Amino acid sequence: MSDEKIPVLDWRRFASGADRAGFVADLGRACRESGFFVLSGHGITADLIGAVFAQGDAFFALPEAQKRALDIRRNRHNRGWAAQGSEALDETSGQMDRKEAFNIGLELAAEDPRVRAGAPFRGVNIWPDLEGFRDTMLAYYNAALELGVALHEALAADLGLARGYFAPHFSAPMATLRVLRYPAGNGGLGAGAHSDYGSLTLLMSDGVAGLQVRRRGGGWLDVPHVPGGYVVNIGDCLMRWSNDVYVSTPHRVRAPDRVRRSVAFFLDPNPDSLIAALPGTGAAKYPPVTGAEYLRSRLDATYKPEDRP
Questions:
Q1: CA 140 to CA 45: how far, in whole Å?
Q2: Which residues, including other chains, have CB under 8 Å from residue 120's CB and lie 6 or more apart?
Q3: For residue 111, is it within any domain?
Q4: What pLDDT, in 10s, does the model give residues 63-78?
Q5: Per-residue pLDDT reduced to its tens digit, 195-213
Q6: What are phi and psi of 68, to 5 degrees?
Q7: What is the residue range of 291's domain?
Q8: Considering only Cβ atoms within 10 Å of each terminal Cβ, which end of the chain, N or C, has fewer?
């Protein structure tokens, strides 16, 4: 992170075609240096973003007994409610995170053959009894998925890959939409130091400070809040896929001085996608692995052994 700054990139430069080459160059630099950037001009409406925050607030305000019925620790497909103190993202310290969250994934019917066969990460979403919650979450999920797949077109251009190279790997992805709530606290961490598991993460926050990125030379850098902008970062899967051309940088959320809310969209590839060194990235540094195998290995390290699904 040579300039100690997180760059802000305007997606309209690429999407409109007005400055595709310039955007790709700036994107590639961010992916190699910090692994983080802020994306403005993305086209997801403020109304939809506001609706997701409102639905998240309504869910977290439910009595704990209602949320407990949707406990993610009883779900093999990474869906449901994660209680405060149920996750430890910092796998080395074992310190439990001070946050709660709710996850949904790709919407599938119970009759879908993949669901009936028990395929990895091919379960049905579980929903709270809240008016408008399901429709709002699915609308946002689909908008974020469209943006994430489009961003991979710019990544393909930067990596010298053919147009559409990544598209087959995100036709039915293991993407997760997670709404989060960090309670106000004195000291400690809302989320321990970690790197994300997937390909790209698109994070929208309410503006309350807390997200920090580890500097290359040590210490932590506060991520700036750009109203309406997504904080986007490279995940471990894409770092591995790019053969370490891109970097997945550790980050954390320090305990906020007031309640902090965010909405994270974690874009992982299809379960059966083979994650192997991309063409043109040199001799492979990692053995091939499927998307499902890789994600399962990471999730298994997040929960306490007695709580793993």
A1: 10
A2: 271, 292, 296
A3: yes
A4: 999 999 999 998 888 8
A5: 999 999 999 999 998 899 9
A6: -60, -30
A7: 8-307
A8: C
